[in-house]
């Protein structure tokens, strides 16, 4: 398991995701202060262009430099504000989700066990006197 | 800006992404130890099913419980190992990328400025004596 590479890839994905969150934030602000620009930015920001946060910013810088710089400032602010809480949120989130998956899985196994017991009990009763088609 | 909601959404995205990385890790291990199972898991793990890590695990638990539990163990291990490094990687990554975007943007503006100076200088020279098609 190449943890160094995974950490690098995860950080890249995270940076793109925070860029997307910054675009959403700026879009919401523009919708109140400058609707035509919000409309323009919304059209510019498709799912495809936002896939790679830094390619998106390069393209936006060429079109509307001040918007790109505003998004860059916002994404840095978001990163600085939330990143210290992320490790615990992620580790605890995974631990809890894993526990819940295991609990549900065990429950299903137990129910399956119960169901098998029921089937077995029924088999022991077979062939019943009023059975329409007794086995053998 | 709703930082609390952004942190929550980011953590959810991150958990799904680490689940995807855990699937990749287990797939690589299986390719060496049990190719037919690697083939099966690869077919099961499409981009669509992996979009939501926990829905994926629920589905996999119903089909191949031990594989799901192995992936759950691996994603928790990855999260515990890399999450402490992520905040700095992300904040530094964004700062550096932002700086690079600003540098390139300034460079383009300066070149544009130079280009405008050149055009202006040419306009001052116009109409030149040897011009083929003088303006006006």
State the main characteristics.
136 residues; homodimer; Non-ribosomal Peptide Synthetase Peptidyl Carrier Protein, Chain A; mainly alpha; disordered C terminus
**Overall helicity of chain A:** over 70%
Number of helices of chain A: 6
CATH homologous superfamily grouping of the largest domain in chain A: Chaperonin-like RbcX
Largest interface: A-B, 54 and 54 residues
One letter per element, helices H and strands E, the order of chain A comes to HHHHHH
N-to-C CA distance of chain A? 56 Å
Q: Main beta sheet of chain A, described?
A: none
Number of domains of chain A: 2
CATH architecture of the largest domain in chain A: Orthogonal Bundle
The oligomeric state is: homodimer
Low-confidence segments of chain A, given as residue ranges, are: 126-136
Briefly summarize what is shown:
Two copies of one chain form a homodimer. By secondary structure, chain A is mostly helical.
Draw up the topology in text.
2 copies of one chain form a homodimer.
Chain A lengths: L2 H31 L1 H10 L2 H4 L2 H11 L1 H18 L3 H40 L11
Description of the molecule:
2 copies of one chain form a homodimer. Chain A is an all-alpha fold. The first copy, chain A, folds into 2 domains: 3-82, Chaperonin-like RbcX (Non-ribosomal Peptide Synthetase Peptidyl Carrier Protein, Chain A); 86-125. Chain A is built from 6 helices and no strands. The first copy, chain A, has helices at residues 3-33, 35-44, 47-50, 53-63, 65-82, 86-125. In chain A, α1 packs antiparallel against α2 (35-44), α1 crosses α5 and α4 (53-63) packs antiparallel against α5. Residues 126-136 of chain A have low confidence and may be disordered. Chains A and B meet through α1, α4, α5 and α6 of A and α1, α4, α5 and α6 of B.
């Amino acid at each position: 398991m190449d943890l160094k590479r995974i950490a690098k890839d995860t950080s890249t994905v995270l940076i793109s995701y925070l860029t997307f969150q910054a675009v959403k934030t700026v879009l919401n602000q523009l919708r109140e202060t400058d609707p035509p620009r919000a409309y323009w930015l919304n059209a510019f920001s498709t799912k495809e262009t936002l896939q790679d946060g830094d390619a998106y910013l390069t393209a936006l810088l060429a079109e509307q430099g001040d918007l790109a710089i505003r998004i860059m400032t916002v994404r840095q602010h978001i990163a600085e504000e939330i990143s210290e809480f992320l490790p615990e949120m992620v580790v605890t989130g995974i631990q809890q989700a894993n526990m819940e998956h295991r609990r549900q899985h065990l429950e299903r196994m137990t129910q399956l066990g119960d169901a098998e017991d029921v089937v077995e009990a029924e088999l022991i009763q077979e062939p019943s006197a009023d059975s329409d088609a007794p086995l053998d």
